[in-house]
Amino acid sequence: MNFAPPNLERVALAAPAMSESPELQRDALIEGRCLSKQYTNDRGQKHVVCSNISVALRKREIVALLGHSGAGKSTLLRMLAGLITPTDGQVFTHGQPLTGPAPDAAMVFQSFALLPWLTVIDNVQIGLERANLTRSERKARAQSVIDAVGLHGCEQSFPKQLSGGMCQRVGLARALAVRPQALLMDEPFSALDVQTAQQLRTLVIELWQQQREGLSSVLIVTHNIEEAVQMADRILVLGSTPGRIVSEVAVHLLRTGANRAHTEEGQRLVRRLYASLTGALSTDEACSIRLTESNDEPQKPDSEQEN
Amino acid sequence: MTRVDACQIRVTRGVHLLPAHKQVMRIAADIAVVALIGSSAAMLVWMLHDAAQPLATLNPNLDVRLGMLPYYAMRSITRMLVALVYSLIFTLIVGTMAARCKRLGRPILLILDVLQSVPILGFLSATLTVWMALFPNSQLGVECAAVFAIFTSQVWNMTFSFHRSLISEPAELNDAARMFHLSAWQRFVRIDIPHAMVPLLWNCMMSVGGGWFFLTASELISVGNDSYTLPGIGSFVGVCIAQRNMVGVLAAIGAMAVIVIGLDLVLWKPLTAWAERFRMTATASAPVRSSCILNVIHQSHLTELKQLLLRMTDLPCVMKLRQHWCVSRATLHRMLQQLVRNCKACLVLPHISAAARKRIADVLFATFAGTTIAGVMAWFGMAVVEHQAFEESVRVVELGSLTFARVMLLTVLCSIIWIPVGVHIGMSPKLSRIAQPIVQLMASFPANFLFPFVLMWFLAWHINMGWGSLFLMALGTQWYILFNVIAGASQIPDDLREMMTALHCSRFQTWRKLILPAIFGPWVTGAFTAAGGAWNASVVSEAVTYGNTTMTARGLGAFITQATDQGDRFSVLLGVLVMTMFVLAVNQMLWRPLERLASSRYTLR
């Protein structure tokens, strides 16, 4: 990968300006400030995956990170989860700097990351083994989340015997079982067929609305625009090479039972996000940076309309 | 949705009370399991009791009546299994260290690579005195030496396999383990071991097969003037060969066949069938492994017993203990952290960035490693000067290149013969279902039991031992190539083969464009193992004795054998060192690049 050096400099120059806001966001569960990540490959070439990204996940909201594959979405999510340390910048939870995996967060993975040699209920219990619970307490808690995600009756089956949608339900139950405040989801539905994915999206929104197991906020990484519109209160659009936030869009659509993305306003938002995404991809770096600057302008009238 | 129904049905079935005849079956299974465990334990106690006799009672002239064979077989099996247990412990500890400690990883792998290439006689002559000193006047010293020798023939490929499994764990699984805050121990038990289980088990089987080959060398210990004969099937064959007792050799071959098949039935079949659950992905093409013994175990009340034991952990006293343990562990952790912080505060270190600290540590480590290697080289150089062994060194290197040529030729010839056969077997599921277990049994049968017969054939046909030893080496090691090629050929996806047919590709083209590239990876693994085995086997195969007839080939293996017989420790050391150098050089310059090529270009994924 070759980047045009002047653009990189411009991005780097922008960094100090953004880091000057000193106080942390009060109601943020997880906040990443000026996060950058670069990898060095075997030949010593540096590859910037994320560049100077600030994100906050506040209480009681669903945030979507929307971007193309390779835009550094998953890297950003893993930095916020404390799984990888950023090259620059810092992650805070409840105002404290984060070292190691975030304590109040749980993660749902694209490939489910279930242990094939454990039964469903054992998989769900895996995060509970450290908690000081008796076996029966652990089992009861696992059983309650299994029921919540609609897996009743499958406790003793192995992941191999389940369909993809079922497996992701297990992944969701495992995450909920540890009673996380923040649920981090890494492209959770992209390995599933359309119908199953839709069912699971509705399930996650329901669980979030009911505040099941104390679930407060959800951060979902996706490349599916409709998914982002359907689920999120805020959408952060990531541009690629290097990954950075191109625009932030607030979604003010009512949560009814139906899919919000299929309403008229929803479709308009989808189209706008699509333009923003493709614009960031098809033009070169200079253009996309211009797009970042000009993106704040048209955002206001749009959100007013949606209100 | 049908899948869900299926699992629901299974759940409800467990609740129903079983009919009477099933209950009887379960109780019968219980009795069988108890009998199996009881007899194994009794055998172990008996064998350990016999092994701990005073040294004076060790009979230098082994009783070679045929009636003694079952007893000898049990002694040998016990030795083998004890060595296997130690190998497993070593593998779990060292493999984890190599995979998890960043700085220790490379040196450990290098040391393992060196140790792997040292022939078994080298280990024996180096450590015999240590074992004898540890257990003075007891047979246990000799037993330990034998077990250690078997251990050194088993352990290395197991460790490498475990290490490879650890570093190839899926990234998301790793993330999940950290995200859900698994402790190091939980991670080891829940993820590391299950993920490594299938390859580790296959390597255990291969290791035991390799161990049988060196059984005679491990049980008939003669280093210089010290010679000990441990009761066992290996020494039985050795003594029979020395006495030209043809009936004895034949009986031992029969007993060995029974042992290999029996172990497969009682140990490996149940274990591999059980380990199927640890496969990451269920492939439809893989044959369903079943084992009648495992079925019996599943029939018994063992699962209920396990449930009962697990429920015991909920008892208040156990919970209290656990709480105490948690609290004390947390306190200990805090204290340690405090200690580290205090130490850091005491040492007024100049502020160094993490990167610089890493670099300093790297430099220190490299210096340490370099000095060690230089020290060993210098010490050995001094020894060569002291013994005035320049000419001998040159001669040993020359012998080494002879053996090297033999090993390479063997690899090439076996490949030419077995690749077509292996591909043919592997591509036909029906054939491979029959052939694979047979090949596997052949691979575990110690070929050196057959050496006397081959030797007589050589004598009758006046075959030169230079070529003959090549044949003897191939007898033991060719199976690795065949085995891997069969496995590789059976994994060629059907759609690729159909594509070749649909495009009307000629047979030649299919072989060149699909089959050979597809089996390249497995072939490299097999040929690498075969070549490594051939180096070790050269010690046994280049100098073969039957009665007072000895046939010797010019080569490094024969040199080491003769030097061991004469008790010339310097020559043994010289020979072992040269062999290690050869093996290491070939590994680094040939096999590792081939493995890299195979994994980067010729993987079917």
UniProtKB/TrEMBL annotation, chain A:
Q: Which PANTHER family match?
A: ALIPHATIC SULFONATES IMPORT ATP-BINDING PROTEIN SSUB, TAURINE IMPORT ATP-BINDING PROTEIN-RELATED
- What InterPro entries does this protein's entry cite? AAA+_ATPase, ABC_transporter-like_ATP-bd, ABC_transporter-like_CS, ABC_transporter_ATP-bind, P-loop_NTPase
**Entry keywords, A to Z:** ATP-binding, Nucleotide-binding, Transport
Name the record gives this protein: ABC transporter ATP-binding protein
Domain of life the protein comes from: Bacteria
What Pfam families is this protein classified in? ABC_tran
Q: Which GO terms describe its molecular function?
A: ATP binding; ATP hydrolysis activity
Domain ABC transporter, first and last residues per copy: 30-265
Which CDD domains has this protein been placed in?
ABC_NrtD_SsuB_transporters
TrEMBL record, chain B:
What are the subcellular locations of this protein?
Cell membrane; Membrane
A GO BP annotation:
transmembrane transport
UniProt keyword Calcium present: no
The record's section on PROSITE patterns has:
ABC_TM1
Tell me the keywords, alphabetical order: Membrane, Transmembrane, Transmembrane helix, Transport
Its transmembrane ranges are 27-48, 77-98, 110-134, 196-215, 246-268, 363-384, 404-426, 438-463, 469-493, 514-535, 570-591
Residue span, ABC transmembrane type-1 domain: 73-267, 404-590
The main location is: membrane
Instruction: Give the source's domain of life in one word.
Output: Bacteria
One of its Pfam families is: BPD_transp_1
Topology in the membrane?
A: Multi-pass membrane protein
User: What Gene3D superfamilies does the annotation carry?
Assistant: MetI-like
Signal peptide start-end = none
* Family listed: Belongs to the binding-protein-dependent transport system permease family.
What is this protein's record name? Answer: Sulfonate ABC transporter permease
